[in-house]
């Protein structure tokens, strides 16, 4: 089967998976590609990795358009995604309504599962928040860092730690079996990121890429986007 190739942040993986059948029925094409830390995906595009469609943060996609790697006229917003807390489904949920609450939650965890703290949106934010809370020196040894949020959440689901917690984008939490969305980050620590889609300048199948963007962003898919953790 001919496929549309995607380079995407992990935040969109569950949504793309949920639309694969509808896209196949509409176009006869499958969907293939990679999902991971947005910085890594952007660098892959810069290194000429084949791609028809790119789904990354709004700011990063704008940079790629300025670099003439993405067609500016094709860029469309998919939705906003918050960075949130996650727990194993069998564990009690935790909430953090204030910075002090979040400090206590993180200090009480014996393992903290997060995506790449250098190249991923959520991972960079976690590192920033730990500094902001003044506990980076204390909890950094407990960080369990993985290439992307999806991998981090799968590892959290299998964790044998007594009191593990995760922090990544809500879409990645929702899409992972055995994991529960525990709560938002408190005011002052929150992060909401707009994700956008665009057609790669070297796309082999630009028509089908445009059709997939229409599916990802269309009003008829609003309920699916919200279930997957995207806010309009």
Topology at a glance:
Elements (H helix, E strand, L loop, with lengths): L2 E7 L3 H15 L2 E7 L1 H9 L6 E5 H9 L9 E13 L10 H10 L2 E5 L5 H13 L2 H4 L3 E4 L2 H9 L6 E6 H5 L4 E6 L7 E8 L6 H12 L4 H6 L5
Parallel strand pairs: 1-2, 1-3, 5-6, 5-7
Antiparallel strand pairs: 3-9, 4-7, 4-8, 4-9
Brief descriptors of the model:
alpha/beta, nine-stranded mixed β-sheet
Short description:
This protein has 232 residues and is an alpha/beta fold. Helix content is 40%, strand content 26%.
Mean pLDDT: 95
User: Which structural category fits the helices and strands?
Assistant: alpha/beta
Shape: globular
SSE string, helices as H and strands as E: EHEHEHEHEHHEHEHEEHH
Which percent range fits the helix content? 25-40%
> What fraction of the residues are assigned to beta strands by DSSP?
25-35%
Contiguous helical run count: 10
> Radius of gyration, Cα only, in angstroms?
18 Å
Residue runs with pLDDT of under 50 for 5 or more positions? none
Largest sheet: 9 strands, mixed
For the record, give the distance between the C-alpha atoms at the N and C termini, rounded to a whole number: 32 Å
Q: Based on DSSP secondary structure assignment, what is the total number of beta strands?
A: 9
Describe the overall structure:
With 232 residues, this protein is an alpha/beta fold. Strands 1, 2, 3, 4, 5, 6, 7, 8 and 9 form a nine-stranded mixed β-sheet that branches. Strand 1 (3-9), helix 1 and strand 2 (30-36) form a beta-alpha-beta unit. The longest helix is centred in the first third of the chain and has 15 residues, at 13-27. It is built from ten helices and nine strands. Helices cover 40% and strands 26% of the residues.
